[in-house]
Amino acid sequence: MKAVRFIEGGRPPEIVDIAKPEPGPGEVLLRIGGAGVCHSDLHVLDGEVPFKGPFTLGHENAGWIEALGQGVTGWKEGDAVAVYGPWGCGSCHHCQTSAENYCENHASLPTFGGGLGSDGGMAEYMIVPDPRLLVPLGDLDPAQAAPLSDAALTPYHAIRAAQAKLTPDATVLVTGIGGLGQMALQILKATCSSRIVAADISADKLETARKLGADVVVNSGAKSAEEEIRDLVGGRGVTVALDFVGAQATIDLASSLIGRDSRLTIVGLAGGTLSYNANTMPYGSQVMVPYWGTRAELIEVIALARSGQIKADIETHDLDEAVKVYDRLREGKVPGRAVLVP
Ligand code: NAD
Ligand code: ZN
């Protein structure tokens, strides 16, 4: 079967033929319906995360159950499912409470998940090591649903964790209106009534933010951006800042705008640094560095999609187009989320 493979950091992915996998005992073989193209893959391809290749990329996956390994019950061939991406040990306290994204044995596991250290979903088939990592999709189309497992789950987790501060009188700043940021805007609209300020450096993305219900849009590349937002929020400041870029400029912008008793959440991995000393961060402020989301939250995200409250803006491509699609993502030319469909 055809697969998009990570070889080593600093090299583009390669599209090669590999053997169709067979599910071992306890495993599930999935026929892939779609694999989302996430900006995190660019950090992997650039060698910023020390992964050892080769393995098949794609950590945002959905499809249909093709075959059940020995001993797997309760599922049937043909069921449409999303794959929960951050694979933990399954037995530590965090994993038992469904927060495998914070698995306590993370450091000693052989993979972060399919597509992040071991074979993922940019192929015709994929092995899922345990059915606990599957969430039923009902009548959602797997290609449409694939981005829910990361582009929506990650902001959902960050937003849920900030929920107590997302009151109707609060202002939330969302920076980076790409794959994750666009889902964040929809999740905020569906789960709270705070005022939403969206920031990006692309005029097209700001137009998208407006369509998705942002109350105010700001070009954060402009010198006046900080002042513009400060005029809006006054002395209270931004109550919740969600940074889906994580560059120095975006971290600086958010940390200068949050007020007392606020929350700064840095999701993006663009390499910026947050510095702290007793006088830099406002009193009462909290910082969160979230990673992905929990299994239970993926069930909730899929419920939001099934009820029509959130929907990824997808464009679909063949596996053969992977290199071109990653280049377009790097250049900021993917309007929403690209999904590879085998
Ligand atoms: P994307 O490429 O789809 O979107 C990025 C957006 O940021 C684009 O709209 C771009 O115009 C905008 N942008 C770039 N530089 C900017 C700047 N200086 N100021 C304002 N806006 C800027 O990316 P994505 O797939 O949404 O991923 C976003 C980030 O989140 C990536 O760094 C990715 O690795 C990270 N991520 C983190 C987690 C986690 O669990 N922490 C999970 C998934 C993705
Ligand atoms: Zn664990």
What best-fitting shape do the alpha-carbon axes yield?
globular
Rg value: 20 Å
- Identify the bound ligands: nicotinamide-adenine-dinucleotide, zinc ion
| CATH topology (level 3) name of the largest domain | Quinone Oxidoreductase, Chain A, domain 1
What is the CATH class of the largest domain? Alpha Beta
Give the strand content. 15-25%
pLDDT < 50 runs, ≥5 residues: none
User: Mean pLDDT across all residues, rounded?
Assistant: 97
For the largest beta-sheet, the strand count, sense and barrel status come to: 7 strands, mixed
Q: Indicate the CATH architecture of the largest domain.
A: Alpha-Beta Complex
- Supply the number of helical segments: 10
Order of H and E elements? EEEHEEEHEEEEHHEHEHEHEHEEHEHE
C-alpha termini separation: 10 Å
Name given to the CATH homologous superfamily of the largest domain? Medium-chain alcohol dehydrogenases, catalytic domain
Explain what you see.
The chain is an alpha/beta fold. The protein folds into two domains: 2-150 and 293-340, Medium-chain alcohol dehydrogenases, catalytic domain (Quinone Oxidoreductase, Chain A, domain 1, Alpha-Beta Complex); 153-288, Rossmann fold (3-Layer(aba) Sandwich). It is 25% helix and 25% strand. The chain contains ten helices and 18 strands. The protein has helices at residues 39-45, 93-96, 142-145, 153-161, 179-191, 203-211, 225-233, 248-257, 295-306, 322-330; strands at 2-6, 14-17, 28-36, 55-56, 61-68, 80-83, 113-114, 117-118, 125-128, 134-136, 171-175, 195-200, 216-219, 238-243, 258-266, 286-288, 314-317, 337-340. Strands 3, 5, 6, 9, 10, 17 and 18 form a seven-stranded mixed β-sheet that branches. Strands 13-12-11-14-15-16 form a six-stranded parallel β-sheet, with helices on both faces. α4 (153-161) crosses α5 (179-191). The N and C termini lie close together (10 Å). The mean pLDDT is 97. The chain binds nicotinamide-adenine-dinucleotide (NAD) and zinc ion. The site of zinc ion has 8 residues, from α2.
